[in-house]
C-alpha cells in the first residue's frame, strides 16, 4: 500500500518510519525539507508539495502542529485541496479543534474526496513502537480502509462517529493530562518544601491508586531538570486552550484546567515552549519560591 505523509515532526517522523518498516511505500513532505532525509534513508520518496503527494497517493496522512498548520497545508497554494478528489482519502492525525476538522472535511468532500480525523493518544515512544491510541471519526468507509495502517501505528483505534468527535475526545484527554501534570508538579514541590523526598513521593504514588505511566516516565526526569521534548509544551498549551474553548461552547466550568493553562502559558512566556510539557514543573517551582522561606 502506498501512503503520503505530511509533517515529519516528533510524531510524524516516528509514524512514517513505522509505516516504512511494515512494508508501506511512503511518500513524505515536510515544510522544512531537510527533515525528509532520515526517511529517505529508510526508503521513503519525497514529494515537492502537499498537492504533489495527494496527486501521487490514494491515501495521505497528515501530522501537523496545530489548527493553523492543518488549514494551511490543505487550503494554501500547492495544498491538499488542489489534488484531492474522487477515490482519494485524506487522514488528519494532528490535534486540532472540531471546527478546524469540520472545515477541512467539508472542503475535501466538496471536491469528491473522503476525510477522516484521527488524532492520537500516546507520545514519541508509543509512536515509535506502534502503540498509539487512535481516536478516529468521519468517513466510515475510509476509516475501514485505513484500519491496517492504524493497526501498524497503534494498539487500538476507536471510531467515534461524526467529524469533530475525534478532535473533542483528544482535547478532553489532553485537558486531563495537562491538569495532572500540574498537580504532579505541585506535589513534587510540596514534598520537597515540607522536608520529604520527592523521589520517595514518586515511589509511593507508583504503588497506589493513582499510579500511571506518565508519572512513572516523567517524574524522575523532572527531578533531574531534564525536559528533552517528547510532547512539546507549546502543543500541550494549545490543547488546553482548545479544550477550554470547548468548555466555553458547552458551558462547562473547568477551573482546574484553566489554572493549569495559566501555568503552561507562563512556561511559554519564559521560553520553555519547545521543551517537554513536564517543564511546567519549573514554573511551579518558581511560584513556590525557589528555596526562599
Ligand atoms: N509529541 C507528542 O507527544 C504528541 C503530539 N500530538 C500532536 O501531534 C501533532 C504533531 O506533534 P509533534 O510531532 O510533537 O510536533 P512537532 O512540533 O515536532 O512537529 C510539527 C510539524 O508540523 C509542521 N508545521 C508546523 N507549522 C506548519 C505550517 N504552517 N505549515 C506546514 N507544516 C507546519 C512542522 O514542520 P517543520 O518541521 O517545518 O517545522 C512539523 O512537521 C500536534 O498536533 C500535537 O499536538 C499528539 C500526540 C502526542
Ligand atoms: O498529545 C499528546 C499526548 C501525549 C501522550 O498521550 O502521552
Automatic annotation (TrEMBL):
Keyword Iron-sulfur: no
One protein family per Pfam: NAD_binding_2
GO cellular component, one term: cytosol
Cross-referenced InterPro entries: 3-OH-isobutyrate_DH-rel_CS, 6-PGluconate_DH-like_C_sf, 6PGD_dom2, 6PGDH_NADP-bd, HIBADH-like_NADP-bd, HIBADH-related, HIBADH-related_NP60_sf, NAD(P)-bd_dom_sf
Signal peptide boundaries: none
Gene3D superfamilies for this protein: N-(1-d-carboxylethyl)-l-norvaline Dehydrogenase, domain 2 (1.10.1040.10), NAD(P)-binding Rossmann-like Domain (3.40.50.720)
Residue ranges occupied by any 6-phosphogluconate dehydrogenase NADP-binding domain in the UniProt entry: 2-161
Residue span, 3-hydroxyisobutyrate dehydrogenase-like NAD-binding domain: 164-283
Molecular-function GO term, any one: glyoxylate reductase (NADPH) activity
Domain of life: Eukaryota
Catalytic activity line of the entry: 4-hydroxybutanoate + NADP(+) = succinate semialdehyde + NADPH + H(+); glycolate + NADP(+) = glyoxylate + NADPH + H(+)
Active-site residues, record numbering mapped to chain: 170
Family: Belongs to the HIBADH-related family. NP60 subfamily.
Stated role: Catalyzes the NADPH-dependent reduction of glyoxylate to glycolate as well as succinic semialdehyde (SSA) to gamma-hydroxybutyrate in vitro. May function in redox homeostasis and play a role in oxidative stress tolerance by detoxifying glyoxylate and SSA generated in glycolate metabolism and GABA metabolism, respectively.
Name under which the protein is recorded: Uncharacterized protein
Provenance organism: Panicum virgatum
